[in-house]
Amino acid sequence: MAAEKTEKRKAEHIQICLEQKAQTKTATAGFEDIKFVHRALPEINREDINLSTSFLNKTFSAPLIVGAMTGGTEAAIEINQNIAVAVEKLGLGMGLGSQRAAVENYALEKTYAIARKAAPNAFLIANIGGIQLVHGYGVNEVRKVIEMIDADAVAIHLNALQEAVQPEGQTNFKGVLTKICEVASKIDKPVIVKETGAGISAEDAEALKNAGVDAIDVGGVGGTSFAAVEYYRGEKMLGEAFWDWGIPTVASIVEVVQSTKLPVIASGGVRTGINIAKALTLGASLAGIIQPVLETAVKSSKETEQLLIGLINELKNVLFLVGAKNIASLTDVPLVICHETAEWLKMRGFNIEEYAIRGAFNT
Asked: How far apart are CA 80 and CA 154, in angstroms?
């Protein structure tokens, strides 16, 4: 019965994200507050720009990963296959949706395993909920979800906001950090902790670093709101009240990068190659894109591939226009942080002036 409810919820989430306006209302990711300093004299050949990068010992052709989306329902098979085909061809990676459904029901493993079948060489991230670790799951279940897709890493997702507004939500998170620490110490694959749309603060990032995690996916405000998703599932009052709750993606990137120096995946409202470049210039290792890929993956792998190629070409143009010859040199590029993001970070005690005076303009 529990497995059937989980599968039904997975199917509802896909339908809502495709058919309803489940993005944030007035809150944004903050990318509009990040301004690059244009180089009229870039002194590089665009064709020589190298976008390849390394993340957790895996080489990506570009610093882009398709974020965790779905699984656990028959509708997810085609979606995950189309994404996997595209990322395999382009030398990228992808995360799978929460694999709880397949832990509960073996028959649903195929909705996740299709990713490795279609992408034998791509970087794949398995996925389990932090709340499940508190409520009975342990190292064995984490190993199971890794083996299910022959994953290169495992993500433990944090979704306190969603659980708080979900009618069937579980809100006892007491002990989740201890469980994360246990997993990180006993699993022989990199452990990533990811938020699901409400962002990660410096305080929580430091705690996660001390717990031994290998990377953090900030999953900030600015993209899909799971409070909104639950609103459309029928939880009107709480969904409406918490629709835009959380830390904007850009602010969360800076908080996590400056406080931990851990590898960071920037996700939450990433929509363009310019967004990707801004995230990387702030110190993220990869940018994760989710909703736009879902919209193409329900159609074909070709449309997904074309979307990703378009983002990569935009990213390459940004590097050209700021005079960066490769991804590593982006963190030397000057940029200006303005408006609400600047106010947030100043009030939180972060140094933002250093971004504006670094790099090539000091030479």
From this structure: 17
Nearest to 84 by CA among 305, 346, 320: 305
- The two beta strands, 153-158 and 123-129, are parallel
Distance of alpha carbon 94 from alpha carbon 128, whole angstroms: 15
152 CB-near residues (< 8 Å, 6+ apart): 56, 58, 93, 123, 124, 125, 189, 190
Report the half-sphere exposure of 157 (CA within 13 A, side-chain side).
24
DSSP letter, residue 335: E
186-199 mean pLDDT: 98
pLDDT digits (tens, 9 = 90+) for 196-250: 999 999 999 999 999 999 999 999 999 999 999 999 998 899 999 999 999 999 9
Angle at 108 between CA 148 and CA 191, to 5 degrees: 35
Handedness of CA 274, 120, 80, 256 (dihedral sign): negative
Token output for 89: 């061809």
Retrieve residue 310's tokens.
Answer: 């378009």
pLDDT digits (tens, 9 = 90+) for 128-179: 999 999 999 999 999 999 999 999 999 999 999 999 999 888 999 999 999 9
Burial-class residue 351 by CB neighbours within 10 Å (0-12, 13-18, 19+).
exposed
295 within 8 A of 17, measured Cβ to Cβ:
no
Question: With DSSP H G I counted as helix, E B as strand and the rest as coil, what are the percentages for the chain, rounded to 5?
Answer: 50, 15, 35
